[in-house]
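hiii, so i know i said id send this last week but things got crazy w the move. better late than never?? heres the sequnce for the chain we talked about at the cafe, plus the structure i predicted for it. fair warning i was half asleep when i ran it
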Amino acid sequence: MAEARKGYFFCRKDDPEESALSLNGKKHKLKAKDFFAFAQNLGLSQKQVEGIFKKFSKNISLIEPCVRASFMPPSMQDAYISLSAERAKRLGF
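okay and structure toks below
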């Protein structure tokens, strides 16, 4: 519980799981195709998914200012921003 209070549950590079639920049979190293497969299983159209990705990619630049305005310690902010950038890159943003 002490770890949760410190905010470590937000950003843990040592935890291989990126999702609590499996997406396309995976919980880590998720890529855009995994989210597209998940959306297809939900019955979303290609156009709907592309719209979601477009909105997300448009707003990805808001992560850093929001994290910097948070109460996380600077080292945790840096780690969170770095991890977010790494995962956004993997998703093609």
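btw Residues 6 and 35 are 30 Å apart (CA to CA). thought thatd interest u
miss u guys!!
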